[in-house]
From TrEMBL:
Keywords: NAD, Nucleotide-binding, Oxidoreductase. It comes from the Bacteria. Residues 149-297 form the Alanine dehydrogenase/pyridine nucleotide transhydrogenase NAD(H)-binding domain. The gene is ald. GO terms for molecular function: alanine dehydrogenase activity; nucleotide binding. Substrate binds at R15, K75. The keyword Nucleus does not apply. This is Alanine dehydrogenase.
Length: 364
């Protein structure tokens, strides 16, 4: 199979879909790998690194799309890429269709086979291709939140860890999944007081078992959310419903109950966000303020640490890329149900209920 890896062109997206080590494995299995020139540079991988393992470098994104049977990316195609996607071409990437009707319509029109990293799901219900980026994003959420609590950036002027004689900052985490646990770990390591809310008691028990005593858990409810937003300095939105739009847990009206300079970090922004006031931002211009509340809603947080993120991503995507390349998408998705659950749009047809429900028949 011919596998193409274009350079990411979304704002400040520095990751690349495949490392040289991944390219080596594919070439070793007899596949042809085409990489757009300089695609890996921002992640620390030079063109020569790919050439040395047998990949072919192509000068333009158009050439990569034209050559490939399967496109391997990190982020969803943006508008300028829509016309490049070919009928029957496999596109394997993070799509997050529920957050963009325009993207969904474009991929339906393309006639491509769209397999989304974020809905590949094993029999235990875990999301193996989302997990490493969720781990990165969860940890980064605390780094960025701590930074934006500083007064020059319009935050409350709170040091999360506090100092002797001064209490630490307070972090509220909505969701005890991968993002939430990694955020709690980082916040606890800084010495912050951490509250984790979730509706899944099994997850709360897990957090309670593995975290230090200054990380506390509570059942998530509107009452508890309203109570805690009044006293916490940093609030992390970490709720995920696979393939579907995230629920709005904090409304615009609730912002008025928060103290000025409170920071909201919405890690669920790719799925529409779990704050009503969420709108996607970029690393170039990461924040905005509503009712004196700082919103950090960067849609590709792991893109800021591309070396770490690219290695972590290829570690988990490569086995699936090999299955698709070796068997073809139909046989691979039939033989491996976890990969089959990644199918979102196939030759113009939406095949995942969550997307259909999100747009409530508007795609018909």
């Amino acid at each position: 199979m011919k596998i193409g890896v274009p350079k990411e062109i979304k704002n400040n997206e520095s990751r690349v879909g495949l490392t040289p080590a991944g390219a080596f494995e594919l070439v070793n299995y007899g596949h042809e790998v085409y990489i757009q020139e300089t695609a890996g540079e921002s992640s620390g991988f030079a063109d020569i690194d790919y050439r040395e393992v047998g990949a072919v470098m192509l000068p333009t994104i158009e050439a990569v799309y034209a050559m490939a049977d399967m496109i391997v990316k990190v982020k969803e195609p943006i508008a300028s890429e829509y016309p490049l996607v070919k009928r029957n071409q496999i596109v394997f990437t993070y799509f997050h269709f529920a957050s963009s009707e325009a993207l969904t319509r474009a991929m339906i029109k393309s006639g491509a086979i769209c397999i989304a990293y974020e809905t590949v799901q094993d029999d235990e219900g875990t999301l193996p291709l989302l997990t490493p980026m969720s781990e990165v994003a969860g940890r980064m959420a605390i780094q960025q939140g701590a930074k934006h609590l500083e007064k020059p950036i319009k935050g409350r002027g709170v040091l999360l860890g506090g100092v002797p004689g001064v209490p630490p900052g307070r972090v509220l985490i909505l969701g005890a999944g991968v993002v939430g646990v990694q955020a709690a770990k980082m916040a606890a390591g800084l010495g912050a007081h951490v509250t984790v809310l979730d509706i899944n008691m099994k997850r709360l028990r897990y957090v309670n078992d593995v975290m230090p005593p200054h990380v506390v858990t509570e059942f998530s409810s509107v009452y508890n959310i309203k109570k805690h937003i009044k006293t916490h300095d940093l609030i992390i939105g970490a709720v995920l419903i696979p393939g579907a739009k995230a629920p709005n847990l904090i409304t615009r009206e609730m912002l008025k109950d928060m103290r000025a300079g409170t920071v909201l970090v919405d890690v669920a922004v790719d799925q529409g966000g779990c704050f009503e006031t969420t709108r996607p931002t970029t690393h170039e211009d990461p924040t905005y303020i509503i009712h004196d509340i700082v919103h950090y809603c960067v849609a590709n947080m792991p893109g800021a640490v591309p070396y770490t993120s690219t290695l972590a991503l290829t570690n988990v995507t490569l086995p699936y890329i090999l299955k698709l390349a070796n068997l073809g998408w139909e046989a691979a998705c039939s033989k491996y149900p976890d990969l089959g659950r990644g199918l979102n749009i196939v030759k113009g047809e939406v095949v995942i209920d969550e997307i259909k429900e999100t747009f409530d028949g508007a795609l018909v």
